[in-house]
């Protein structure tokens, strides 16, 4: 079981879109997937075409001591999503207090699930520091930091470096982390400059891209992931390359490849 946390320091970078796309691409390439949504906004299910607004989920199941399997949504054979679920404000605060006092909550509950060894767990998280991010980082084998090629996003990366250093790199079982520049536009000088600067600053880590592609928005409007909407799109090809990166580097500690996507050398 490989656990991949998809994180970001700020909102609006397309993190849930990347989480859903990676999950579907892993599934379509023969890997069973479990999606974990740790975001109170319940965004992951929407990016996968699930619209159950009376949503039970991990939050309420945990508070009531129920088996997580009772709240799983099988969206496709081989792909199950455990949503955050809908809770009132009082219960949300109780749930977050519980997570803060039980740092191994996510890891322990994942180990209890009857998952086949080939399963990849994709963990979607809310942006910025939170108890949800702490749980995801503490459980993850691999972390992918999603960012944009702009100054505001670039300024947040040192914060993510510190969080990963605190929660991940001290663990012997941690495999490493990478930076994914989403909505990358290779025709813009700023995008190319940010990409090159990140690679120069972090030569030991993977820094790659998912290119800007209108098909991603179109797919969401149709209730589909880009994987099932347009297999000829640039974004889909980039997502497949990231799936290959996850697969290749899931057994190598602190793996570092400077260019996971050939297009990112623009």
Automatic annotation (TrEMBL):
PANTHER family: COBYRINIC ACID AC-DIAMIDE SYNTHASE, P-LOOP CONTAINING NUCLEOSIDE TRIPHOSPHATE HYDROLASE. It comes from Mesopusillimonas faecipullorum. This is Cellulose synthase operon protein YhjQ. Pfam families: CBP_BcsQ. InterPro entries: Cellulose_synthase_operon_BcsQ, DNA_Partitioning_ATPase, P-loop_NTPase.
């Amino acid at each position: 079981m490989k656990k991949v946390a998809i994180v970001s320091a700020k909102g609006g970078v397309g993190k849930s879109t990347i989480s859903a796309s990676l999950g579907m691409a892993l599934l379509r390439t023969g890997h069973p997937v479990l999606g974990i949504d740790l975001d109170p906004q319940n965004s992951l299910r929407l990016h996968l075409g699930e619209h159950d607004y009376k949503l039970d989920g991990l939050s309420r199941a945990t508070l009531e001591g129920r088996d997580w399997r009772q709240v799983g949504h099988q969206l496709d054979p081989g792909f199950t999503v455990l949503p955050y679920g809908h809770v009132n404000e009082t219960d949300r605060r109780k749930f977050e207090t519980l997570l803060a006092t039980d740092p191994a909550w996510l890891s322990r509950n994942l180990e209890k699930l009857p998952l086949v060894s080939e399963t990849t767990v994709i963990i979607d998280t809310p942006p910025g520091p939170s108890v949800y991010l702490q749980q995801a980082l503490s459980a993850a084998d691999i972390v992918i930091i999603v960012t944009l090629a702009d100054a505001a996003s670039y300024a947040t990366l040192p914060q993510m470096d510190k969080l990963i250093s605190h929660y991940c790199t001290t663990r012997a079982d941690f495999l490493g982390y990478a930076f994914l520049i989403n909505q990358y536009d290779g025709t813009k000088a700023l995008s190319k400059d940010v990409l090159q600067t990140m690679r120069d600053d972090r030569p030991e880590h993977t820094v790659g891209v998912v290119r800007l592609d209108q098909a991603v928005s179109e797919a969401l409007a149709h209730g589909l992931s880009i994987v099932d909407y347009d297999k000829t799109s640039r974004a889909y090809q980039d997502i497949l390359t990231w799936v290959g990166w996850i697969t290749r580097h899931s057994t190598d500690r602190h793996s570092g490849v400077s260019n996971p996507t050939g297009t990112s050398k623009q």
